[in-house]
Amino acid sequence: MAKETTMAKEATNPAPGAEYLTVAQAAVHFGLSETTIRDMLKRDQIPGVVRYGVRAVRIPRDAFRRIGEETHRRHMESRAAS
Fold it and tell me: Is 60 left (phi over 0), alpha (psi -120 to 50) or beta?
């Protein structure tokens, strides 16, 4: 339940001045499928996400930089292997 409380706080307090993307925009921006982005959201692997409901989310433009280059590289490798 603590995770849900954190998510609710994020929804009411997005970072000032940050640029956010929809799932579709994030998929294009990061070179991943929308399904991959949604799977990452379900596993809480993307930091700084703002949730406005179950499916309505906004992802910070710099999310993968904050995750780290290594994580992004692993996702790209697994995508290429599929």
Answer: beta
* Residue in this structure with the two tokens 């294009």, named with its chain if needed: 28
Helices within the chain (DSSP H only):
2-12, 23-30, 34-42, 63-67, 69-81
Give pLDDT tens digits for 28-78: 888 889 999 999 999 988 888 999 877 789 998 888 776 666 566 777 888
- Whole-model pTM: value is 0.61
Q: Which amino acid is at 26?
A: A
Domain containing 43 equals: 2-81
Q: What type of residue is 79?
A: R
Domain count, the chain: 1
Q: Rounded to an integer, what distance in angstroms lies between the CA atom of residue 51 and that of residue 59? A: 9
Residue 49's nearest CA partner among 1, 2, 5, 7 is 7
